[in-house]
Design brief:
Layout: E1 4-8, H1 13-29, E2 32-39, H2 66-85, E3 94-100, H3 103-114, E4 118-122, H4 128-133, H5 137-144, E5 149-152, E6 157-161, E7 164-169, E8 172-173
Parallel strand pairs: 1-2, 1-4, 2-3, 4-5
Antiparallel strand pairs: 6-7, 7-8
Helix pairs in contact: 3-5
C-alpha cells in the first residue's frame, strides 16, 4: 500500500509529466504527496570579497543565507505546483520540501527522511553522447533509492510518416527511418 509519494521536480516541462502521474497515483491510493526540489549549493555567492570598496555602495551587495535560499526555493516550488496543478491537488494532503546539494543524493536523502513508499519522477530525453558521459538523475536515484522509483516519460506527439506512427519531438522525427 502506498501511503507517501515523493515527487522531485526541476520546474521543467519534462518534470510536469512526473508530477501529473504522482498526483494521479496519490488520488487513487489516498497517499500524501511530498513535492521536492533540489538546488545545487551556490558556492559562487559565498566567495565575494568581505572588504568594502569606495566605489561600490554596500547597499547593493546581496546578502546570502541558506535559510533565505531554502525559503525562496520552497516558494517557487509551491507556485509551480499551484500554477500547473491547482485543481488536482485541492483534495490531496501535500507539502513542499527543498534540499541543497547534488540532486540525486538529495532526492534519495529526502526519500529516507520522509519514509516514502514510492518516488515518481519525470525523465528527460538525453542524447547518445550524454548517456555515455554520465548517469542520468533518474538512473542514479533508482540505483540507490530505498523504495521503488517510477520514471515517467513526457508525452510525445505521434504523426504518421511513411506508413508508420513516429514520435515528433521539437519538430524532428524520431524513429528508425528518421
Amino acid at each position: 500500500m502506498i501511503r507517501k509519494i515523493l515527487c522531485p521536480t526541476d520546474f521543467s516541462s519534462h518534470s510536469r509529466a512526473g508530477v501529473a502521474s504522482a498526483i494521479s497515483l496519490a488520488q487513487a491510493s489516498r497517499a500524501e504527496l511530498v513535492f521536492f526540489h533540489a538546488t545545487p549549493f551556490p558556492l559562487h555567492e559565498l566567495t565575494t570579497y568581505c572588504e568594502t570598496h569606495l566605489i561600490i555602495d554596500t547597499r547593493y551587495i546581496r546578502s546570502f543565507t541558506v535559510d533565505g535560499l531554502q525559503r525562496e526555493t520552497e516558494s517557487r516550488l509551491c507556485h509551480f505546483v499551484r500554477a500547473h496543478f491547482d485543481s488536482e491537488i485541492n483534495k490531496l494532503k501535500w507539502k513542499p520540501k527543498v534540499g541543497l546539494g547534488k540532486v540525486a543524493r538529495e532526492i534519495v536523502a529526502a526519500a529516507c527522511q520522509e519514509e516514502v513508499d514510492l518516488i515518481v519522477m519525470g525523465k528527460r530525453k538525453r542524447r547518445l553522447f550524454q548517456r555515455f558521459l554520465s548517469r542520468s538523475v533518474s538512473e542514479a536515484v533508482s540505483h540507490s533509492a530505498p523504495c521503488p522509483v517510477l520514471t515517467v516519460c513526457p508525452p510525445q506527439i505521434i504523426r504518421p510518416w511513411r506508413g508508420k506512427s513516429v514520435p515528433v519531438i521539437g519538430g524532428v522525427l524520431q524513429g528508425s527511418e528518421a
